[in-house]
Amino acid sequence: MSVARIEVDGLSKVLGGVTVVNNVSFQVDPGQIMGLIGPNGAGKTTMFNLISGVLRPDAGKLRVNGRDVTGLPPYRLARHGIVRSFQLSRELDRLSVLDNVLLAAPSHPGETLGGALFRPFAVRRAETELTRTAREMLALVSLTPHESKPAGALSGGQKKLLELARALMAGADTILLDEIAAGVAPHLVEEIIAIVQKLNRDLGKTFLIIEHNVGFIRALTSRVVVMAAGELLAEGSFDHVSRNPAVIESYLGQAA
Amino acid sequence: MDAYLVAILTTAAIYVILALALNMQFGLTGLMNFGVVGFYGLGAYSSGIMTETLGQPIVMGMLAAMIVGGTAGALVSLLSIRLSGDFLAIVTLGFAETMRLAFNNEDWLTRGPRGFLIMTRPVLEGLGRDATAWFILGVFLLVAAVVFVVFNRLAGSPFGRVLRSIREDDLVPATLGKNVLAYRLKAFVLGSSVMALAGSLYAHYVQTVTPDNFTTQVAVLVWMSLIVGGAGNMKGAVLGALVVTAIYEGTRFLAPLMEFLTPTQVSALRFIIIGTLLIVVVRFRPEGLLPERIVARPAARDPAPG
Prior knowledge:
A: alpha/beta; four-stranded antiparallel β-sheet; 23% strand; globular; B: mainly alpha; two-stranded antiparallel ribbon; 14 helices; 2 strands
């Protein structure tokens, strides 16, 4: 039995006196594409914030590849191979698309003060090398023609793809996607599905996906976790949980 | 007239250094330092105390200024631990005022409002009056050039890219594995120590520093230089400082032409002119005279050109 890539073990988070995540446990196995679904306010994005270290849990444990990483700041979690996208995409507007991706390169010698000042040749060599890698990542998400544009000039869907390229560049083996299909043109949604499948199949990337788009979840995920009002409601295949009366009730409200 | 031009250029060199330092903090990293003058004054007094009270050579004074300025920068930034916009702005503003009050009241160290006399000058022995002025200008331009080259290289390096990403949205570099706090600290300390270096040069140039030399007015001129020139672009910072100093100092020549104004009114007029310039630039060219370059750098685009 292999170690879970991400193991959420009884995580809880209280924000402003409200328990937004209450004792939730589940795990994501290596190479899996897992969905995290639930009605608005279920605590899905808070769960992402906990897993990516943006928020510290009030109780519970978070393990990545079997290592306890509870309470680590985001940059340390990123070094454990977990990179997320954001519900409202956060691109660096005034950096070029290529620079957005290059930024994600782990351990670039030119990112230290000493390296930037005193090792120009090593830095240039690394930059050239990494630029090649960054271009490959941009090609994977079909953004090659846009590489010298400021990231702020991309369309909503392209920004989501840019986030994906950044995550790949960062060397993430687990990518958390927060509503990557929301507000994206339908043909781009198809493309995103194809890209995620390709990354999963060819590069063995693990995904945890928050999504409201049912078609997207059904097309991609092998298993889903359903949250409602901060609690874990159900877990299983999408078709299985979508027949669960508690899940239906949480989405449609209590039957009169 | 000639001597006056040299004096203006010498002042301009100091403002160029200050604007470059603020550009490292605000232009690149987005750190709101409203306490520029606090670090500037700290550098001036540290350097003066090193050379006069302790009798060390001027190089030691400059070094002491940078160390004290950098340490103060580290303390101030750690006080507002996350260094997010508003907190840092308030803390630095308070820092500058605290420094001014300390200069004023710590008589035993700074000689308070009577002024601190500094005899050490950055010149060789036995030069004539004019030659001395030119020599000082040369030294200041050299220091400004070194600061420009170092900061420009940092700005164009992957280090600078991380700083700019922090300015745009600090959560993104954090989730990509960058230690945002450490980078902010480095940028702030670099800027603060260079501001203190500018203060050291100023002190050995004017030879008497009083707490009144370190009021908000200096910080306002530096901020205007950066905004007019183009925040995020080191060349823009230089150009902005030159333009603002030229206008601020150049308007002195207006006084004889406008005899109907009192000297106080003329000095107010100088700020009116600079203020108008700022409004015009922000209205018609909000990114400054020399905007930051966004497109991928040619070096990255075309591998190994030389």
